Amino acid sequence: MSEFLNTHNASLLLSAANKSHYPQDDLPEVALAGRSNVGKSSFINILLNRKNLARTSSKPGKTQLLNFYNIDDKLRFVDVPGYGYAKVSKTERAKWGRMIEEYLTSRDNLRAVVSLVDLRHDPSADDVQMYEFLKYYDIPVIIVATKADKIPRGKWNKHESAIKNKLDFDKNDDFIIFSAVDKTGLDQSWDAIIAAINGEF
Ligand SMILES: Nc1nc2c(ncn2[C@@H]2O[C@H](COP(=O)(O)OP(=O)(O)O)[C@@H](O)[C@H]2O)c(=O)[nH]1
Ligand SMILES: [Mg+2]
């Protein structure tokens, strides 16, 4: 973990639907994106060593706002609502799209997006679209492949290759195999995040 941050000093700062509600300062932000249920909240909880700071839920699609987490007044995590939840209307989906796009394309504080995918499966069309979107806007991206504990270690490489292939992965990006159950990839995730923040604190 980071020697620069007291991660115990972390809390949900605010939830925002649009720009006018974003925090107004210069703190660096790292956003977390991924489909519902991929493990975003669990990732935040593990990185901050908290049981339930970011709510983990077996009911997907519950979080509909951008949740800004303050970490030691030095950095923020921004939990972006999960995509690919089947049971929302087209109108809801469009609203969701505009909210994410507004944040990702206009937020000066944004330093990187941690894009979470499930190590077990090929990336969904939404996963691929998200990666393409981030590459198009030149937003630094860290791919975190979650739920590694659910497949044997001997198969990790094969799954990693399949995901990279489907994403047309840029080898300059970070690819981290992660598990919220056994904390595989915890240090690597912090290293990548700290590198993206690049000495701002
Ligand atoms: N086995 C395993 N389960 C996980 C992992 N990460 C998340 N989960 C489970 O997957 C479900 C969804 O996780 P959550 O963090 O709420 O996903 P979110 O919707 O992306 O925020 C929950 O039941 C978690 O306990 C992981 O690394 N390994
Ligand atoms: Mg969540």
How would you portray this structure in words?
The radius of gyration is 16 Å and the shape is globular. The chain has a single domain, classed as P-loop containing nucleotide triphosphate hydrolases (Rossmann fold), CATH 3.40.50. A 7-stranded mixed sheet has the order 1-3-4-2-5-6-7, with helices on both faces. It has 5 helices and 7 strands. It has 201 residues and is of the alpha/beta class. The model has no long low-confidence stretch (mean pLDDT 91). Helix 4 (156-167) links the parallel strand 6 (141-146) and strand 7. The structure holds guanosine-5'-diphosphate and magnesium ion.
SSE inventory with pairings:
Blueprint lengths: L9 E7 L12 E6 L5 H8 L18 E6 L3 E5 L10 H17 L3 E9 L6 H12 L4 E6 L9 H12 L6 E4 L8 H12 L4
Parallel strand pairs: 2-4, 2-5, 5-6, 6-7
Antiparallel strand pairs: 1-3, 3-4
